[in-house]
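Data card: per-record layout.
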Amino acid sequence: MKPRLIRWLVGTLLTCLMAIPALALEAEFRTNQGIFTIKLLPDKAPQTVSNFVRYARESFYDGTIFHRIIRDFMIQGGGYDQRIRKKPTYPPVPNESDNGLSNLRGTVAMARTRDPDSATSQFYINVVDNPHLDGQPQRPGYTVFGRVVAGMDVVDRIANLPTRAWGQFRNLPVDPVVIEQVILKDD
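The structure for this 187-residue chain is written out next.
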């Protein structure tokens, strides 16, 4: 079997096992910079939302940092602890960027490598419209799976913090931005 097909089958199985409720979920992010809430969109990105919910239910994101902040672009987190150590993840989920959603201001999408099917735990929040990150007919994009519904001012505050280069990181906040807790809520 081809690796992409195997990933798709694994992702489909995970979606079935997670049994996401029909109602959309919300995830409240409590950070050391304030609180913001995202609405998850399981009807548009079921495997991606299932993946995110699994990490959140296991408290994976608690104590992680936003390690990449680029003013007038996005903020990225969900992969490193406060000592800037990469956290171990589950296998990647299939790319669902062909779901009709666009990387607009306030949307939440999965970070990945050049491999379209490489997203694991890291996500980013668009602080401006970034349609160049959307999928094209011959080029998968970045899967949007939620949107900020409260606290965009907190996201904007984070996006405007000073950053520095450190090791492999080019846009690490000078002072850590910690995700203290992610709380899942029914809509």
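Known properties of this structure: The radius of gyration is 15 Å. DSSP finds three helices and ten strands in the chain.

See the next section for split statistics.
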